[in-house]
């Protein structure tokens, strides 16, 4: 990640007015200066805490400083937004007529922004966090845009720490680790990540993209799942997997780890609404082991709840379990939860996928992943919060 100074400014040791600091507590930095950074953290009074990656400043040769947010722009993403039709960026995803002038900003066709992140939202809107501009009377960088008016390209994953935590070399209780095996990370810190996956003991294994922490400069750590949230799509994750034209009904199948015979037309759960035909694509994708079967059952319970929350509307399953060969063929993520059986891509009758996402987001919380394209919604039971938009 990089930070660029866009207006002559002072880097400070505290997020307060520079007049309240001594000369030794602040450093002048000229417009156009760029630094590689390990991470940034939102701080009080519109400041950002920056950890420089390969540079120190000041008499104390320090790498951690605070900067006034409007004086810098953070370039941590290759994600770009282009406005393809004159539009309004809004503070709420509603009709512009419902907003005051201070809650919306006109943006002209052809305008481009770098994005920190983007997520689906209701009424076919997308929530965008702009990396290189602050708009409106209050210098905001987070806005809602009407999805057909913008084009978003590129992908990146960000991890935000949502509670003071420890990054650990092993997924165990921190008291079992030496001081060299753990690093304290402050609430609000944001890193760009290359990958993330579940680990033992309700932990997540993360591979940082730009930061090397601890005495051995490591980029791979374990972190307690409730202490972080992840936003952004994995590169090349653009699955195109449509449902079969006709669901199978009575054919028998055998599932690994079970002696009994299952039938494609039978519900996965007693009296449930989702069948083994939907989970296995009419028996063409038989789970490779019993853990995948348990994953299918786990997310089937979730899908029954989803159906109730959405008013018992009809749900069409586009994609459920995918074996590794199929997952690569349809363009799934390299660590897709479809491989574990506990992910479903689906379409809800009479609801736009962005509205489905908005309705489920708070309810699903930190229990798993949630994402939308304009043509389907994805949900999975990975056990920690991951949110993204597919961008198509």
Radius of gyration: 23 Å
Mean pLDDT metric: 90
Beta content comes to 35-45%
Q: Do you know the CATH topology of the largest domain?
A: Muramoyl-pentapeptide Carboxypeptidase, domain 2
> Structural class per helix/strand content?
mainly beta
What is the number of helical segments per DSSP (H or I, 4+ residues)? 4
- Percent in helix: 10-25%
- CATH architecture descriptor name of the largest domain: 2-Layer Sandwich
Number of folding domains?
4
Please give the largest β-sheet.
15 strands, mixed
Shape: globular
Cα end-to-end separation: 26 Å
**Number of beta strands:** 28
Low-pLDDT stretches are none
CATH class of the largest domain: Alpha Beta
Annotation keywords:
392 residues; 15-stranded mixed sheet; SH3 type barrels; mainly beta; 5-stranded antiparallel sheet; single chain
Give an account of the 3D structure.
With 392 residues, this protein is mainly beta. The protein folds into four domains: 74 residues, SH3 type barrels (Roll); 75 residues, SH3 Domains (SH3 type barrels, Roll); 75 residues, SH3 type barrels; 138 residues, 2-Layer Sandwich (Muramoyl-pentapeptide Carboxypeptidase, domain 2). 11% of the residues lie in helices and 36% in strands. It has four helices and 28 strands. The protein has a 15-stranded mixed β-sheet that branches. The protein has a five-stranded antiparallel β-sheet with strand order 13-12-11-8-14. Strands 2-3 form a two-stranded antiparallel ribbon.
């Amino acid at each position: 990640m990089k930070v660029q100074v866009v207006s002559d400014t002072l880097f400070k040791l505290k997020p307060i007015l520079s007049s309240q600091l001594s000369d030794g507590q602040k450093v002048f930095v000229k417009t156009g200066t760029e630094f590689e950074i390990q991470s940034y953290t939102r701080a009080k009074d519109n400041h950002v805490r920056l950890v420089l990656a390969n540079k120190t400043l000041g008499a104390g040769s320090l790498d951690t400083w605070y900067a006034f947010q409007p004086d810098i722009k953070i370039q941590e993403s290759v994600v770009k937004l282009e406005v393809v039709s004159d539009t309004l960026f809004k503070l709420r995803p509603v009709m512009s007529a419902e907003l005051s002038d201070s809650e919306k900003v006109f943006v002209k066709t052809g305008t481009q922004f770098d994005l920190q992140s983007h997520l689906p939202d209701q009424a076919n809107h997308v929530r965008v966090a702009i990396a290189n501009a602050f708009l409106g009377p209050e210098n905001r960088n987070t806005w809602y845009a009407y999805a057909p008016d913008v084009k978003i390209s590129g992908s990146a994953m960000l991890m935000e720490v949502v509670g003071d935590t420890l990054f650990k070399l092993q997924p165990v209780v921190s008291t079992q680790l030496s001081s060299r095996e753990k690093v304290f990370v402050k609430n609000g810190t944001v890193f760009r990540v290359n990958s993330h996956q579940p680990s033992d003991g309700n932990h997540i294994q993360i591979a940082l993209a730009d930061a090397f922490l601890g005495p051995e400069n490591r980029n791979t750590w374990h972190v307690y799942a409730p202490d972080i949230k992840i936003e952004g799509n994995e590169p090349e994750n653009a699955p195109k997997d449509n449902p079969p034209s006709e669901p199978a009904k009575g054919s028998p199948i055998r599932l690994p780890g079970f002696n009994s015979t299952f039938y494609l037309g039978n519900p996965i759960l007693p009296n449930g609404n989702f069948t083994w035909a939907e989970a296995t694509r009419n028996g063409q994708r038989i789970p490779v082991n019993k853990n995948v079967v348990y994953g299918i059952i786990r997310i089937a319970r979730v899908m029954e709840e989803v159906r109730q929350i959405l008013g018992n509307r009809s749900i069409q399953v586009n994609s459920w379990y995918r074996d590794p060969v199929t997952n690569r063929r349809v363009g799934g993520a390299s660590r897709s939860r479809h491989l574990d059986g506990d992910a479903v891509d689906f379409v809800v009758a009479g609801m736009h996928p962005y509205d489905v996402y908005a309705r489920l987001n708070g309810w699903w919380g930190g229990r798993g992943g949630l994402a939308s394209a304009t043509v389907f919604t994805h949900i999975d039971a990975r056990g920690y919060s991951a949110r993204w938009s597919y961008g198509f």
